[in-house]
Amino acid sequence: MSTPLPAVMAGRTVLITADRRSDDLAEAFARRGAMIRHAAAMSIVHHSDDERLVEDTRALLADPPDLLVVTTGTGMRGWLEAADVAGVGEELRRVLGAARIFARGPKAKGALIAAGLPVEWVATSETTAEITDHLLAAGVVGSTVAVQHHGSGSDGLDEALTAAGARVAPFVVYRWGPAPDPAAVTASVRAVAAGEIDDVVFTSAPAVEAWWAVAEAVGVADEIVRRSHEDVLFAAVGPVTAAPLLAKGVDPLVPERSRMGALVRAVLVHHGDGAPDSAG
């Protein structure tokens, strides 16, 4: 018979702002005793809703890239799935496999390896800025660069590569959309300001920015900053997600590894847990 996990989150209310994998986060905290509130700050428009992705993919197959930049594992898998549905999956894998491939972090690398695509270089900081610096230092003049973007788009990468003499083919496999329940987001910022929330968890920088914009619009941003210094724990999945919080005066808890499971673990340890746990 298994030993019950310590209920280190008992009596605490956790606000989850993610759309993707929110159920995993909720389960991980709930089984340690937490009460869960969910207010997705943004929605995700997936590849299956975007016919342009398939059109752009067919154009790439007709004019193969010299370099491929992959920014997210989710996006890479989604791109291949969309290509498979369109009947060009095998051809896309062949074309991409002939390019020099650069990954923004280990999750992007993992998706590429799983697809049988060789990775030449990985940005250890998991930032677009590191990829940009690396490619510009290597030189891209005259190269065709296919870029699989995350939901926020280019982050300046396309523009920098174009200015350096490359021809860029961007692919946005999923896009950030508006909050699925704006009223829930508004209620959540008020709840944090009122001290009704103990922990606020973020898994993407765009979600931080969208959630904070609501807090500012409602007029509770200053109170939230004050709460973050006293009795509310903010947690971010990695340094990229933490950056907009730091810019607002909130110093979030950030795990050593930018993983969902590591984020959960860091929050549990912060609250005194010593037992293994993970959201995957």
Automatic annotation (TrEMBL):
Record NCBIfam families: PRK07239.1
Matches recorded under InterPro entries: 4pyrrol_syn_uPrphyn_synt_sf, 4pyrrol_synth_uPrphyn_synth, UROS/Hem4
Range of residues in the leader sequence: none
Any Pfam family hit: HEM4
Keyword NAD attributed: no
Matches recorded under Gene3D superfamilies: 3.40.50.10090
Protein name, UniProt field: Uroporphyrinogen-III synthase
Tetrapyrrole biosynthesis uroporphyrinogen III synthase domain boundaries: 23-264
GO biological process, alphabetically ordered: uroporphyrinogen III biosynthetic process
Superkingdom per UniProt: Bacteria
Gene Ontology molecular-function annotations: uroporphyrinogen-III synthase activity
Keywords for the protein's UniProt record, in alphabetical order: Lyase
Species the sequence originates in: Janibacter limosus
Enzyme Commission code: 4.2.1.75
Lyase recorded as keyword: yes
